[in-house]
Write a structure and sequence with these properties.
The chain has 160 residues and is mainly α. It is built from five helices and two strands.
């Protein structure tokens, strides 16, 4: 690990102290995410991987925001394997939601125009709309392919 990566790792530790000392955040360790991995362990792994990828690929990011977003990306406090209130699909619906996943029942109601070559949104510099929710795919496989192509385009842009 380079000196710069070591400094960034220490900086990230400092960012995370208030969160990792928070009783509610720590309670994520009581819930299983995948196999024997707790939700907290999963989120910490995503945080480390996200920051490492950004660093190694020389992507200009706000590491503080990236780390917190990754840490809290699966912030829920229940065992989704046994959670019946939402039906069979975890995270799909919520009793207080006014409108949930309209694109899951039909084509996306919105299509964000983007440049054909750069895949960047036409009117928002630095925004890369991707996949079904942005109107660029019709199913899970085409959404994944579009997401990969768009992510590569964004990486290319930010690596320059």
């Amino acid at each position: 690990m380079s000196l710069q990566e070591e400094e960034r790792t220490e900086e990230l530790r400092q960012y995370m102290i208030p969160y990792l000392e928070n009783e509610t955040v720590c309670s994520m360790d009581e819930y299983v995410q995948h196999g024997t991995t707790s939700t907290l362990q999963h989120c910490l792994s995503v945080m480390r991987l996200s920051c490492a990828l950004a660093s190694r690929l020389h992507i200009r990011v706000n590491y503080h925001n990236l780390a917190i977003g990754a840490l809290l990306h699966d912030f829920y406090l229940y065992d989704w394997h046994n959670h019946q209130d939402e039906g069979p699909l975890h995270g799909f619906a919520h009793p207080d939601a006014l409108l949930t996943g309209v694109e899951t029942r039909s084509s996306s109601p919105v299509r964000l125009p983007r440049n054909r070559e750069t895949l960047m949104a036409e009117r928002v510099d630095g925004l890369y709309p991707a996949g079904e929710g942005a109107g660029f795919a019709g199913g899970i496989v085409s959404a994944a392919v579009d997401g990969i192509q768009t992510a590569l385009a964004a990486l290319h842009h930010y690596a320059e």
